[in-house]
Design brief:
This protein is mainly alpha-helical and 111 residues long. Helix content is 62%, strand content 12%. It has a three-stranded antiparallel sheet with strand order 1-2-3. The mean pLDDT is 90. The chain crosses the membrane at residues 46-65, 77-95.
C-alpha cells in the first residue's frame, strides 16, 4: 500500500508540474473520441494546482499514519478543506472548458 501511495504522490507531482506550464490541451471525450474538452492555459494551471493539492493530501495521510494515533480535529478539518479545494479547482477547470471537435481524432488524409 505504501508503494502505491508513493507512486500516486509522485504521479500527482509530475502531472501537476506538466500542467502548471499552462499549455492548452484537449481532453478526449470518453464516449465519443471525435469530441474533446478544450482546456485553456488557465484551466490547465488549475488542474495542475489541484494535482499538487492532492499530492499534499497524500503526504498528509502518510505523515498521519506514521504517528499511529487518531487524527486531531484540526488535521481532519485541514484535510477536508484541502480536498474540497482540489475538487473545486477540478470542477472550475472542467466547467470553463469548451467541448469542441477533437483535432487529434480527425480522419486520416486520403492518398
Amino acid at each position: 500500500m505504501r508503494l502505491f501511495l508513493a507512486f500516486a504522490i509522485l504521479l500527482c507531482i509530475t502531472g501537476g508540474a506538466w500542467l502548471v506550464q499552462g499549455d492548452d490541451f484537449y481532453w478526449p471525450a470518453r464516449g465519443d473520441p471525435s469530441l474533446a474538452l478544450h482546456l485553456s492555459g488557465t484551466d490547465a494551471r488549475m488542474l495542475g494546482a489541484a494535482l499538487f493539492v492532492m499530492a499534499g493530501l497524500g503526504a498528509m495521510a502518510v505523515l498521519q499514519a506514521r504517528r499511529g494515533r487518531p487524527a486531531s480535529r484540526i488535521w481532519q478539518i485541514a484535510y477536508f478543506a484541502l480536498a474540497m479545494l482540489a475538487t473545486a479547482l477540478i470542477g472550475v477547470a472542467i466547467w470553463n472548458g469548451e467541448v469542441v471537435p477533437n483535432p487529434e481524432a480527425s480522419a486520416p488524409a486520403t492518398r
